[in-house]
Amino acid sequence: MAIPSLPEQTRDTPGSTxxxxxxxTAPAYEILHTLLTCLHSLRWATRVAAHRPxxxxxxxxxxxxxxxxxxxxxxLTEALAAETLPVLPDDAYGAAHMALDAAHAAYEARFGHRFxxxxxxxxxxxxxxxxxxxxxxxxxxxxxxxxxxxAEELRRLARGRLASRLRGAGSCATSHxxxxxxx
Length: 183
Prior knowledge:
By secondary structure, the protein is mainly alpha-helical. Helices cover 58% and strands 0% of the residues. It is globular and about 50 Å long.
Protein backbone atom coordinates (compact mmCIF):
# COMPACT_ATOMS: atom_id res chain seq x y z
CA MET A 1 0.00 0.00 0.00
CA ALA A 2 1.34 3.42 -0.91
CA ILE A 3 2.05 5.81 1.92
CA PRO A 4 0.23 9.07 1.30
CA SER A 5 2.02 12.35 1.58
CA LEU A 6 0.50 15.54 2.87
CA PRO A 7 -1.80 17.47 0.54
CA GLU A 8 -0.20 20.42 -1.23
CA GLN A 9 -2.09 22.97 0.88
CA THR A 10 -0.30 21.75 4.03
CA ARG A 11 3.19 22.09 2.60
CA ASP A 12 5.29 25.06 3.53
CA THR A 13 5.17 27.95 1.11
CA PRO A 14 7.81 30.68 0.97
CA GLY A 15 7.09 33.44 3.47
CA SER A 16 4.43 31.54 5.42
CA THR A 17 4.52 30.43 9.04
CA UNK A 18 3.34 26.86 8.81
CA UNK A 19 2.83 24.32 11.58
CA UNK A 20 6.10 22.70 10.49
CA UNK A 21 8.00 25.87 11.41
CA UNK A 22 6.45 25.72 14.88
CA UNK A 23 7.30 22.02 15.12
CA UNK A 24 10.91 22.77 14.20
CA THR A 25 11.35 25.68 16.64
CA ALA A 26 9.16 24.88 19.65
CA PRO A 27 10.79 23.80 22.91
CA ALA A 28 11.65 20.10 23.10
CA TYR A 29 9.22 19.43 25.97
CA GLU A 30 6.33 20.85 23.92
CA ILE A 31 7.21 18.77 20.87
CA LEU A 32 7.62 15.62 22.96
CA HIS A 33 4.15 16.19 24.42
CA THR A 34 2.72 16.71 20.93
CA LEU A 35 4.42 13.60 19.60
CA LEU A 36 3.28 11.49 22.55
CA THR A 37 -0.34 12.36 21.65
CA CYS A 38 0.37 10.85 18.23
CA LEU A 39 2.03 7.68 19.53
CA HIS A 40 2.70 7.10 23.21
CA SER A 41 6.24 5.78 22.85
CA LEU A 42 8.99 7.82 24.43
CA ARG A 43 11.61 6.22 22.15
CA TRP A 44 9.60 7.13 19.03
CA ALA A 45 8.87 10.68 20.20
CA THR A 46 12.49 11.30 21.23
CA ARG A 47 13.84 10.05 17.91
CA VAL A 48 11.43 12.15 15.85
CA ALA A 49 12.10 15.27 17.95
CA ALA A 50 15.87 14.78 17.88
CA HIS A 51 16.07 15.09 14.10
CA ARG A 52 14.57 18.57 13.94
CA PRO A 53 14.54 20.73 11.93
CA UNK A 54 12.70 19.04 9.08
CA UNK A 55 12.85 20.71 5.68
CA UNK A 56 9.28 19.76 4.77
CA UNK A 57 6.30 17.82 6.15
CA UNK A 58 7.02 14.74 4.06
CA UNK A 59 10.49 14.41 5.61
CA UNK A 60 8.94 14.62 9.08
CA UNK A 61 6.43 11.90 8.18
CA UNK A 62 9.22 9.74 6.76
CA UNK A 63 11.17 10.14 10.01
CA UNK A 64 8.04 9.18 11.93
CA UNK A 65 7.72 6.02 9.86
CA UNK A 66 11.39 5.13 10.28
CA UNK A 67 11.23 5.59 14.06
CA UNK A 68 8.06 3.48 14.23
CA UNK A 69 9.71 0.64 12.30
CA UNK A 70 12.40 0.46 15.01
CA UNK A 71 10.07 0.07 18.00
CA UNK A 72 11.02 -2.75 20.34
CA UNK A 73 8.43 -5.07 21.90
CA UNK A 74 8.66 -2.92 25.06
CA UNK A 75 8.03 0.24 23.04
CA LEU A 76 4.99 -1.39 21.43
CA THR A 77 3.67 -2.35 24.87
CA GLU A 78 4.12 1.25 26.04
CA ALA A 79 2.30 2.61 22.99
CA LEU A 80 -0.52 0.07 23.16
CA ALA A 81 -1.18 0.79 26.85
CA ALA A 82 -2.15 4.36 25.94
CA GLU A 83 -4.41 3.54 23.01
CA THR A 84 -8.16 3.87 23.21
CA LEU A 85 -10.44 1.22 21.83
CA PRO A 86 -12.06 1.99 18.49
CA VAL A 87 -15.75 2.54 19.09
CA LEU A 88 -18.83 2.55 16.96
CA PRO A 89 -20.89 5.68 16.44
CA ASP A 90 -23.69 6.12 18.99
CA ASP A 91 -26.33 5.51 16.33
CA ALA A 92 -25.00 2.02 15.49
CA TYR A 93 -27.30 -0.89 16.23
CA GLY A 94 -27.12 -2.44 19.69
CA ALA A 95 -26.14 -5.77 18.15
CA ALA A 96 -23.13 -4.12 16.51
CA HIS A 97 -22.02 -2.72 19.88
CA MET A 98 -22.38 -6.16 21.48
CA ALA A 99 -20.46 -7.81 18.64
CA LEU A 100 -17.67 -5.23 18.93
CA ASP A 101 -17.45 -5.64 22.71
CA ALA A 102 -17.26 -9.43 22.35
CA ALA A 103 -14.64 -9.19 19.58
CA HIS A 104 -12.52 -6.80 21.68
CA ALA A 105 -12.71 -9.11 24.68
CA ALA A 106 -11.69 -12.12 22.57
CA TYR A 107 -8.83 -10.17 21.02
CA GLU A 108 -7.49 -8.93 24.36
CA ALA A 109 -7.75 -12.43 25.84
CA ARG A 110 -5.80 -13.89 22.92
CA PHE A 111 -3.09 -11.23 22.51
CA GLY A 112 -2.98 -9.45 25.88
CA HIS A 113 -3.44 -5.92 24.54
CA ARG A 114 -6.00 -3.64 22.97
CA PHE A 115 -6.89 -3.96 19.34
CA UNK A 116 -5.64 -1.06 17.21
CA UNK A 117 -6.46 -0.23 13.64
CA UNK A 118 -6.03 2.82 11.48
CA UNK A 119 -9.33 3.68 9.83
CA UNK A 120 -8.04 6.77 8.01
CA UNK A 121 -9.87 7.12 4.72
CA UNK A 122 -12.68 4.73 5.68
CA UNK A 123 -16.07 6.41 5.38
CA UNK A 124 -17.90 6.51 8.75
CA UNK A 125 -20.73 4.47 7.25
CA UNK A 126 -18.27 1.60 6.62
CA UNK A 127 -16.18 1.90 9.80
CA UNK A 128 -18.21 -0.60 11.85
CA UNK A 129 -18.02 -3.27 9.16
CA UNK A 130 -14.29 -2.67 8.62
CA UNK A 131 -13.58 -2.73 12.34
CA UNK A 132 -15.47 -5.94 13.09
CA UNK A 133 -14.09 -7.70 10.01
CA UNK A 134 -10.54 -6.70 10.94
CA UNK A 135 -10.82 -7.93 14.53
CA UNK A 136 -12.31 -11.24 13.43
CA UNK A 137 -9.66 -11.69 10.75
CA UNK A 138 -6.77 -10.80 13.03
CA UNK A 139 -7.99 -13.18 15.74
CA UNK A 140 -6.75 -15.96 13.43
CA UNK A 141 -3.17 -14.59 13.47
CA UNK A 142 -0.50 -16.25 15.55
CA UNK A 143 0.98 -13.92 18.21
CA UNK A 144 4.13 -13.05 16.22
CA UNK A 145 2.15 -12.30 13.06
CA UNK A 146 -0.25 -10.14 15.07
CA UNK A 147 2.66 -8.27 16.66
CA UNK A 148 3.85 -7.30 13.17
CA UNK A 149 0.33 -6.23 12.10
CA UNK A 150 -0.17 -4.27 15.33
CA ALA A 151 3.16 -2.47 14.89
CA GLU A 152 2.15 -1.49 11.35
CA GLU A 153 -1.23 -0.20 12.53
CA LEU A 154 0.48 1.86 15.25
CA ARG A 155 2.84 3.29 12.61
CA ARG A 156 -0.12 4.22 10.42
CA LEU A 157 -1.95 5.78 13.38
CA ALA A 158 1.11 7.82 14.36
CA ARG A 159 1.54 9.02 10.78
CA GLY A 160 -2.12 10.04 10.47
CA ARG A 161 -2.14 11.81 13.81
CA LEU A 162 1.08 13.66 13.04
CA ALA A 163 -0.21 14.68 9.61
CA SER A 164 -3.37 15.95 11.30
CA ARG A 165 -1.25 17.99 13.73
CA LEU A 166 0.66 19.49 10.82
CA ARG A 167 -2.62 20.52 9.26
CA GLY A 168 -3.47 22.22 12.54
CA ALA A 169 -6.46 19.96 13.14
CA GLY A 170 -5.35 18.64 16.51
CA SER A 171 -4.79 14.98 17.17
CA CYS A 172 -6.50 12.16 15.34
CA ALA A 173 -7.76 9.42 17.59
CA THR A 174 -7.99 5.69 17.26
CA SER A 175 -11.61 5.89 18.21
CA HIS A 176 -14.42 7.73 16.55
CA UNK A 177 -15.29 9.51 19.78
CA UNK A 178 -12.47 12.04 19.52
CA UNK A 179 -10.41 10.67 22.42
CA UNK A 180 -6.68 11.23 22.31
CA UNK A 181 -4.41 8.39 23.36
CA UNK A 182 -2.44 8.73 26.52
CA UNK A 183 -4.53 11.57 27.93
